Amino acid sequence: MSFVITTPLYYVNDKPHLGSVYTTIICDSIARYKRLVGEEVIFITGVDEHGLKIQRTANEKGVEPKTHCDEISEIFNINWKNWDISFDKFIRTSSKNHELVVNEFYKRVKGSDDIYMGVQKGWYCVGCEEFKDNPENSTTYKCPIHQKKLEWKNEENLFFRLSKYQKQIEEIINEPTFIEPIERRNEIINFVSRGLKDFSISRTNVSWGIPVPGYEHHTFYVWFDALLGYVSAISNDTNDNSLENSIKRGWPADIHLIGKDILRFHAVYWPAMLISAGMKIPKKVLGHGFLTREGQKMGKSLGNVLDPNLLLSKYGNDPVRWYLIKDISLGNDGDFQDRRFVDIINNDLANVIGNLLNRTSSMSRKWFDNKVPTNEKITTENKLENFANHAVENYINKFDIYKLDLAANEVLNLAINTNLYLNDNQPWLLIKEEKNLPLVKEIIYNVLESTRIIGLLLLPLLPELSTKIDDQLGSNYKKEVPWKNQLRWGLLISNSSLPKPTPIINKLEYE
Ligand code: MSP
Fold this sequence. Notes:
The chain is of the alpha/beta class. Helices cover 48% and strands 13% of the residues. The chain contains 19 helices and 16 strands. The protein has helices spanning 18-36, 52-61, 65-82, 96-111, 166-174, 182-193, 222-227, 229-235, 243-249, 263-276, 308-315, 317-327, 338-367, 383-400, 404-425, 427-430, 437-457, 463-472, 483-486; strands at residues 3-6, 10-11, 41-48, 89-92, 115-125, 130-132, 151-160, 179-180, 199-200, 202-203, 219-220, 255-259, 285-288, 291-293, 296-297, 334-336. The longest helix is centred in the last third of the chain and has 30 residues, at 338-367. It is elongated, with a radius of gyration of 26 Å. The two termini are 48 Å apart. The mean pLDDT is 95. It binds 5'-O-[(L-methionyl)-sulphamoyl]adenosine. 5'-O-[(L-methionyl)-sulphamoyl]adenosine (MSP) binds next to strand 2, helix 1, helix 7 and strand 12. Residues 8-11, 19-20, 22-23, 48, 226-227, 229, 258-259, 261-262, 290-291, 298 line the site of 5'-O-[(L-methionyl)-sulphamoyl]adenosine (MSP).
């Protein structure tokens, strides 16, 4: 069975922002980790192209929605390649394959007697593509996420009988592993306890959408359509794009990683829709927090939007990944601070990890003929080996429960402890006396070996840096050998050649 992980399908009203880069990087790390531990992974990302919001964006630009979507979808696709995101599927909800799956799915839900015609009245946020629980003063109220006024809607729509699934949804959301972290679960438990209301799944005023079979002028509500992108993506590039084939090839998803603002859709509406269609529900909905900039919400009106591509071209992939993965605890809100970014990269990556590798490799080359020394094993208790084994164990335990920040900290701690070991042992003094040679060999071997393990642990988190570390240690990593087996202590080959050291990470300057 495959391990299926998804990013949200991003709206194509604009190019990717730091929030979308954040989610996608986290998914990428998890996908890479799962592949390394031997799972067959289907990593899905893509774009959500239909609906009023996109229709309006295209109109404002004076182009057809399809032309607009082609352009922005391509930007997303190229963007993820630039960020070296290892996605397996890229789904566009305007594709014919997807439409086929939506129609088949709708047929199933209709067959369960879960669709009826009704009138939808209420206040709508076009930015969220969501009806809001009627706030007081709805005419002046602005959606806190989009800072835009709500619009009054009153139209005949098709409805989905969500209320019928109250009990089942309650059971699902009370499962401790279904929604994480716990704060997110509590929000949803609270919401569901107020009673689920049926929701409309069609629109009559939106032409940019998938037509509902049998109902002229009705297109599917963008969320009903978009969530199904997770399913249609699975058989996307095969010869058989049927719903059945997607189910067979990988459904249900193991993880939907999403921001906290779209939790209801994923943790309440979506499971109910799936049960109605006789399908399995996703195993986990992981809701992450929001990124702010220097403590403020990022927004065009505030003029503080951080262009992720500028970060990428200026600093490269690894620094941005490290900051987002290590400095933000998945589930909590996170703040992007320019100075903190520079400090963290300089400290963790350049000073702690980069210097460790550089200086040890230089010593080894100088004293041992450009090679790794022989592993002398003269000390009975190898402190560093114990540290490394613990770090590996903790790292795996943290990664398995998607605490990526803690896993990253395990790697950093191992590097800090390795530096301490080196400083405590001072091989540069010991080497002055011939009799100490075996001990110096042991020390340098241990440090290089620990650095090899640090590099390997970084593989799912910082793939580029990990490869650079491996290159500098003489390319020990073997793709064909299980990654976990290579985390065992002592695999660095004695007397193997060490290439000339080059800095693996550049120090950053404050702007
Ligand atoms: N199209 C829907 C998702 C459909 S999934 C079937 C959508 N798209 S979105 O482009 O508006 O948002 C995508 C993701 O970006 C959401 O998970 C949202 O939480 C996230 N973020 C938007 N702003 C964000 C930050 N400032 N910080 C972190 N993530 C944020 O919703």
